[in-house]
Every structure is written in C-alpha cells, then in structure tokens.
C-alpha cells in the first residue's frame, strides 16, 4: 500500500484513490477494506464507488461534492483499517462442463502447455480464486488466483459470439462471461449458472471478496441444471 | 392505464431516465439518457419529476401515438439548420413546448441532422417497471426499459399518473439557456487519470485541438478521430474505474469517449475527462460532428456548473424538492 494513499480528482465528479502501485493480494484486500468503510460513511454527494485492483474510484454529484471533506473522510476510512482485514465470508461453487462444444479451446490450452485436457481441468478446479472486483460489464468478476501453469495468450482474433456462462482464460486471468458477447479469451468450458440476473434480490451471483471454486460437471448434469446445450 | 404506441422507432429508440447510480460494484454502469438535461427539463415542463422516464430517439425520430388524450413535450437540439421538426396533422410541433395530444393523433418526428438525441416526455412518465432502481434501458445488459431492448414498431408502453404541477412554458430566456447547455462547438475537458502518459503538457497538447466523431459510436462509447498523442506507457495499464465522459486513448489518433452504457472499468489510458456541464452536449454529438476541446480544471468546472444549474433552476424550477441528479 502506498503511504499515504494518492488522491487524484480525475474530473469534476470523480476522485481516484490509489492504494498500491501493482496488483497483489494485499492491494486487493486493502481496496476491499476501504470500500466497506467508504460505503458506510455517508459522504456528501457520493453516488457510486468503483473498486478495482489497486484503486477505488468515487463518483459524486458535482453540485454537492465537497472536495476537502471527501478526501478527509476517505483518509479517515483508511486509517487503521488493517485492524480488521476482511476475509472472504462465503465460497461460491461454479459447476462447469469442460471441453467439447462447451469448451472449444480446452484442447489448445492443454497443447500450448504440454498438458492433457484432464490436467488442465484438475488445475483449473484445484484452486480457490478470489473475486478481486467486478467490472467491465454487469456481473463480470475479475478473479485472482489462476495457477501460473494455465496462463495462456488470448486468441489472435476474438470470437464474434460466445454463449452466456462461457468460462475462459485470457493471459493470467480466468472468468465467466455473464452475457452472450464477443471475446478473445480461450474458452475451456461453460456453466449453467446465471451470473447476472437484474430481477434477483442480489443481481450479481458474485460479490467482491467472494472465494470461488470451479467444479467439473458432465454434459447431462449441465442439461439437468437447466443449461442450454 | 394509458399507453404510448410506437408506430416506427426511427434509427434507435429506447426508454431512458436519469439512470441507476449505485450499482458500479456489480459492474452496472449508471446508464440513463445520453442528454440528461433535455430529458429532465422536458419532464419539468409538463409537471413531472426530473426522474420520470421518457423515450430517447437516437439519430432520427420515429412515429408514435397515444391511446388517450395526453400532454407531451419533445426536447433536444432546437436551433439551427437540421434541427428536428416534428409534425402532427400537418402542423409543426415546436421543441420545448408542451402540447395537448388527442387520443390516436400521430406525431411524426422525422429525420434531423442537428443533435443526436431527441426526447419525448409524457405527462405521468413512461411507466415501465424499474429494474435496479432505474427505468432506463440497459441494452448491453438486456434489462430495464421495455423488455431490455430497443423499441420496435408495435410496442405499447404504459404511461404513469405521477405528476405534480400543471404544464408550463419555460419563457423567453429558456431558448438561450438550452443553446448554452447544448452548445456542440466545444467540450470542456480536464486532465484524466493518465493525462501525463499521453499528452505531456495538457493545455498545450489540447490548444485548438478538435475531435471528429466517427460512425463507430453507440451508447457504450463514441469513437473520434483526433490528435495523435505519444503513449509513453506501452503495454497494458492496471484495470481501473472508468466513467461517462472518460476520454480513452487506445492509440493512433483514435479517441473513445465513454457513453452512458460504457464499461465500469477499463484498461486503456484515460487521457482526459469531459466536464459534467459538457456531458449533455456530448450526448448530442453525431457522426461527422467536429468539436473543439477547451481545457479547464475540476474546481473551475464545478463553479461554472453551480452558476449554470442555478440559472436553470431559476428559469425552470424542479417540480419537487428532491435532488435531481441531472448532472
């Protein structure tokens, strides 16, 4: 963590709070701790908080924001947060049907690393990931913890259309596409779980700080789960 | 319940309101009208709260009718060649003026080339079900508005009953105010989080610089051709918060200004940020529009916005005391 944190007004309505120089587990934990505190402070004019790997972005109503009091309150939120570092309070299990039509790039990922597809699945399911934050599109979770053996370059040309629930690897990251979209990640499987449902009490299945484990499932289990084959 | 019937949506029409702030943690952008000013002020003119939903017609207008007598107003860029000239039964309906419409009367907005977003506000508001605190259409996410999608011919939209005041005319001073807010000749900008990586001396880099909008633009983001900048930072930046009006520089003279449905985080450097008071004009830019960048600072922009917002509220007060979050 940088000491003190760096404040930067990046527009007349956004305050960027930088807590670390590089991505790390510590940085992720700090961001989360600050997020929890900032949420509860009732900072005047605050509309939204956007956590990321090393930063939080606070969005204000520009007519209501008071620059100095906002900075002071965030500073106070930072002071002494180390006393109670937040821990993941729940583990979300995501069943995945790997390979075949569900994971068209599984064989390539295995070949790139000189592994069998079974070993790729073992490695992918054998790790506990942490939701560093959600970003990009509704319900999309940036997961930390992909084993180094599975870091794989993206496809040279993105696919035009991926089904919702596609599980991919892109560089050092893994994640699940909540909605049908285009994408350059290598797709190794698909989950029947709905990652984002705006009508649900909590729209996003995953929450910042969650522990996530992937679990293999068969094609028939996938169908029984209501997944579209 | 009364209904609005879409006879033709034009190029692209969606239900929009002032957006759904507060869901960034779930990666849901605020969304809402591309030009929140025109939507909110349209609502004020017909006695609705600022937050009522209306229809946003993008790039061209459509045709519509109501199943009962009602009061409507259409707002957006009203002046100059190419401004929208909606008509009904052979009569032009001026923008920014509330009118009474009888059941079944068809309004044809038609094409326009000045401004990009035309709003239809109706007394009582478009009453589609709120999702995550907003009635606006989040097209990429497939939710909100009418079935989470753009409107098509034949859609019927329910109209609400919530209104607080009789319709009013905004008065003579109003025309000048809207022209001031929707001035598309310039955008006020200030340094974004990665300005030093791109622009070096910010004011110098942008002096006299123009951006020209390309057709590769939508509610997620608009692409512009503009000045070539160095990128001292090759390789990827750490992904961080992005926002409406953030000016990303992927390279090669291409600029992306994020729109209301843009991503909540991103990895391209954000070289500059469009000021809150320029965001309504940004929402009115259309492909091939060319705009001058004027540099400013967050403090100056907040001060200028306070003056502007006071002038607006004095000329056309909100119907309720609630904070409107137009900006």
Name some characteristics of this structure:
heterodimer, A: 229 residues, alpha+beta, Cyclophilin, 2 domains, four-stranded antiparallel β-sheet, B: 327 residues, seven-stranded mixed barrel, six-stranded antiparallel β-sheet, 20 strands, globular
Average pLDDT metric of chain B: 94
Domain module count of chain B: 2
What count of helical segments of chain B does DSSP give?
6
- Please provide the ordered H/E string of secondary-structure elements of chain B: EEHEEEEEEEEEHEHHEEEEEEEHEH
Descriptive report:
The complex is a heterodimer of chains A (229) and B (327). Chain A is α+β, with helices and mostly antiparallel strands and 229 residues long. Chain A folds into 2 domains: 78 residues, Gyrase A, domain 2 (2-Layer Sandwich); 134 residues, Cyclophilin-like (Cyclophilin), CATH 2.40.100.10. In chain A, 22% of the residues lie in helices and 29% in strands. In chain A, the strands form 3 sheets. In chain A, strands 7-6-13-5-12-9-10 form a 7-stranded mixed sheet. A 4-stranded antiparallel sheet of chain A has the order 1-2-4-3, with helices on one face. In chain A, strand 6 and strand 7 form a beta hairpin. In chain A, helix 1 packs across helix 2. The termini of chain A are far apart. In chain A, 48% of the residues are buried. Chain B folds into 2 domains: 176 residues; 111 residues, Cyclophilin (Beta Barrel). In chain B, the strands form 4 sheets. In chain B, strands 12-19-16-17-14-13-20 form a 7-stranded mixed β-barrel. At the A-B interface, strand 3 and strand 4 of A face strand 15, strand 18, strand 19 and helix 6 of B.
């Amino acid at each position: 963590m940088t000491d003190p944190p760096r404040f930067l007004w990046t527009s007349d309505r956004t305050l960027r709070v930088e807590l670390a120089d590089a991505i790390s587990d510590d940085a992720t934990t700090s961001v989360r701790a600050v997020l929890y505190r900032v949420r509860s402070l009732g900072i005047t004019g605050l509309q939204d908080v956007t956590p990321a790997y090393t930063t939080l972005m606070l969005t204000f109503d520009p007519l209501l924001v008071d620059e100095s009091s906002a900075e002071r309150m965030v500073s106070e939120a930072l002071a002494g947060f180390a006393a109670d570092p937040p821990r993941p309070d729940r583990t979300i299990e995501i069943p995945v049907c790997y390979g075949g039509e569900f994971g068209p790039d599984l064989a390539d990922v295995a070949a790139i690393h000189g592994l069998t597809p079974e070993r790729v699945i073992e490695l992918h399911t054998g790790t506990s990931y942490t939701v560093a934050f959600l970003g990009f599109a509704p319900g999309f979770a940036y997961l930390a913890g992909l084993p180094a053996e599975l870091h794989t370059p993206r496809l040279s040309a993105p696919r035009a259309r991926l089904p919702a629930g596609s599980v991919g690897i892109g560089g050092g990251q893994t994640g699940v596409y909540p909605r049908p979209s285009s994408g350059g990640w290598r797709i190794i499987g698909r989950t029947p779980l709905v990652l984002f449902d705006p009508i649900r009490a909590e729209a996003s299945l995953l929450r910042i700080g969650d522990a996530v484990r992937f679990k293999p499932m068969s094609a028939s289990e996938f169908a029984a789960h209501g997944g579209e084959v | 319940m009364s209904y609005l019937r879409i006879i033709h949506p034009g190029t692209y029409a969606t239900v929009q309101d002032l957006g759904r702030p507060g869901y960034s943690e779930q990666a849901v952008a605020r969304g809402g009208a591309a030009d929140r000013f025109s939507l909110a002020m349209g609502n004020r003119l017909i006695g609705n709260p600022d937050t009522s939903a209306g229809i946003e017609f993008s790039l061209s207008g459509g045709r519509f009718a109501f199943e009962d007598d009602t009061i409507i107003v259409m707002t957006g860029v009203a002046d100059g060649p190419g401004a929208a000239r909606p008509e009904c039964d052979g009569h032009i309906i001026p923008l920014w003026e509330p009118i009474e419409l009888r059941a079944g009367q068809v309004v044809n907005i038609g094409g326009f080339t000045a401004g990009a977003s035309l709003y239809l506000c109706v007394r009582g508001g478009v009453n589609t079900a709120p999702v995550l605190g907003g009635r606006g259409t989040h097209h990429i996410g497939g939710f909100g508005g009418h079935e989470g999608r753009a409107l098509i011919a034949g859609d019927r939209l329910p109209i609400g009953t919530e209104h607080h005041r009789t319709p009013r005319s905004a008065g003579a001073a109003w025309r000048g105010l809207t022209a001031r807010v929707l001035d598309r000749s310039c955008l006020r900008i200030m340094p974004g989080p990665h300005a030093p990586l791109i622009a070096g001396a910010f004011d110098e880099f942008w002096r006299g610089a123009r951006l020209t909008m390309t057709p590769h633009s939508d509610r997620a983001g608009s692409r512009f051709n503009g000045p070539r900048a160095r990128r001292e930072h090759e390789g990827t930046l750490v992904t961080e918060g992005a926002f409406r009006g953030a000016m990303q520089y992927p390279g090669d003279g291409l600029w992306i200004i994020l729109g209301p449905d843009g991503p909540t985080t991103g990895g391209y450097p954000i070289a500059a940020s469009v000021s809150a008071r320029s965001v309504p004009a940004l929402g009115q830019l259309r492909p091939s529009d060319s705009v001058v960048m004027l540099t400013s600072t967050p403090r100056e922009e907040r001060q200028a916005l306070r003056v502007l917002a006071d002038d607006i509220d004095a000329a056309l007060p909100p119907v309720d005391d609630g904070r409107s979050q137009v900006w």
